[in-house]
Amino acid sequence: MGLPELAWQRREADGPRLVGLRTTPAGVLPPEGSQLVADGQIRGRVTSSRLSPALGRVVALAQVDAAYAEPGRELTVRLDGAESLRVVVTAGLAQVDPEGVRLRG
User: Fold this and answer.
1) DSSP characters for 66-104?
2) Which of 61, 75, 80, 87 has a beta carbon 3.0–4.6 Å from 21's, enabling a disulfide?
């Protein structure tokens, strides 16, 4: 991914989007590569997920269909077996320091 991918996303109207995810409950870590489902269809996949010591919760990124990338959109992560996890698309990719205060400190 990286900067070229994000620039491409801004130009394309209907391609996949890189989004931030917030899990519910906050401490459940979705495995990377897990499918994201909405309206009975696969809409994307988890690309990375980690437990953030700074936030005390999971932070994750995913690639999703453009129609499901708007902040606040709820999706379901398919876990092993019949279990699932609810996730919400965040307003931005950076979840620890979105304004860059710590970076520019």
Assistant:
1) GGG-STT-EEEEE-STT-EEEEEE-SSS--S-TT-HHHH
2) 87
Task: List the beta bridge partners of residue 42.
Answer: 37
Give the strand pairing for 35-38 and 74-78: antiparallel
The pLDDT of residue 78 is above 80: yes
- Cβ atoms of 86 and 23 closer than 8 Å: yes
Domain topology for 14-92: Elongation Factor Tu (Ef-tu); domain 3 (2.40.30)
Neighbours of 87 (CB within 10 A): 26
The closest alpha carbon to 30, from 67, 68, 58, belongs to 58
Please state whether the predicted TM-score (pTM) of the whole model is above 0.90: no
